[in-house]
Please model this.
Amino acid sequence: MKQMINIRTLLVASGVLLTGLLFLPAIASAQGEEVSSAIRRYKDREASTGYYEEYEMLPRRQRPFVEIPGVRRGIFPYSPTAARVRVRMRLADSHQGIKFYERRRCEDCHIEQTRDIHTVRANITCRQCHGGEPIASNAHYFSPLNPIRRHAYVCAKCHEGASASYASYVVHAPNPLMAGTMKSFPVLFYAFWIMVAIAVGTFAVFLPHTILWGIRELFIKKEKAESEPDNEN
Amino acid sequence: MNLTTKTRIKRFSPLQRIFHVLLMLSFLTLGATGLSRMYIETPWGRWLGGLFGGYEAARTVHIYVGIFMLCGLLVHVFYLLFKINWQKFPRSLTGPDSLLPRPDDIKQFFQHIAWFMGFGKPPAFDRWGYWEKFDYWAVFWGLIIIGTTGLLMAFPLTSSRIMPGWGLNVAFWIHRIEALLAMAHVFIIHFFIAHLRRHNFPMDRAIFEGSASLDAVRHEKPAWIERLEKNGELDAVLVTEAVPGQQIVFYVFGYAAVAAGLFLLIGALINTPYISW
Model:
């Protein structure tokens, strides 16, 4: 009898222990890595987006403990406002209807947008700012790049403390050399050409001036000898 | 070489020479760090950036040295305020010893050009030629333009509070063009005038030694010597030549700066097609 109790106690105890295992933290795994969805990695500019694409590796059983009533999709974002922005179902798809869209890369069409400092020097990928599919227009209300929130949702990922004014920096700045910039970014256009005029003006004067001077001085000696015949031997 | 007779005329004070050396060092450092970032897409730019610890570190060096240079400008302005002869105030600034431009400079500029072409005599320059005045004031307005835009970009969070963030796009291009102009002017025009033209070849040591050869100055700036002789001030400003050891230091330092400048100039020109503008 005494033995029976001991076996039952053992069973209960082991049951409790086994159940308790479920509440232990997950075994650390290298697979819980956040990966960018683009060809290039985040590199040293990595900043967490806080959410994951369906096809990317998810951290195992480590979901942010945030619940928003009525929103059930994927990993929950960290704030109620963010939830509304990041639920992709609500975003319009700017690329709807483009053939073979899945097989294309951003720069196939948006080549002009790959020549700015963010892309070329800091190796920022398109998706690090524009997000995953569907990509809505920046003017779309729920777009993270909408000027009402882009400073907080996009710029501040790297530029801590970015303000709305700060976010008005034109990432895909037009080339100031182009005539179209006169309309799209007149201040840049005129500042650029005024500076070029100053630079070219300086050189237009001083380059020929200096070359001529250098040549002219090669012929000084004769004059010097004439005017000061007894100067040094 | 005669080290006992006074064959040279004093041209720059020790403080002015120190200003120039500091300006040289900071200018070259700023040029190298700035170009390394501009050319970071090319192996040349990456190598150059590597000297300063990479792309990010080059920016830090650039900002600190830039602020140092701006402090130099500020100190120089205070120096000017102390240096100006306030007793003879407006006239002390319009005289021939002042670096302020005078109507004569424009006349001499055209007379000089005419002489290049073979017409007439070279102008009788006084203490400062128009090209020297231009170089002096170019640093002034250049530093104000490049310093302001540089500070705006160095502290973008603060600057976007006082102006719209898109002003940084404009500041970037103003900074870049002004920097390229400054480097091209120094590495081509200034170096040519101070080193290559026959009057100064192989190097005008005046800015390091503080004095210039009296014979050479009498030839190029006769009005200055004439004025000093007339007022009986010439003997007071005559000095002896620096000892050979010092001269070697001047030449090595001067040519090291020239080499660094030409390296930056040529590297930048060669790699121009390989960067995104």
In short: The first helix of chain B runs from residue 14 to 38. The mean pLDDT of chain B is 94. The longest strand of chain B covers residues 8-10.
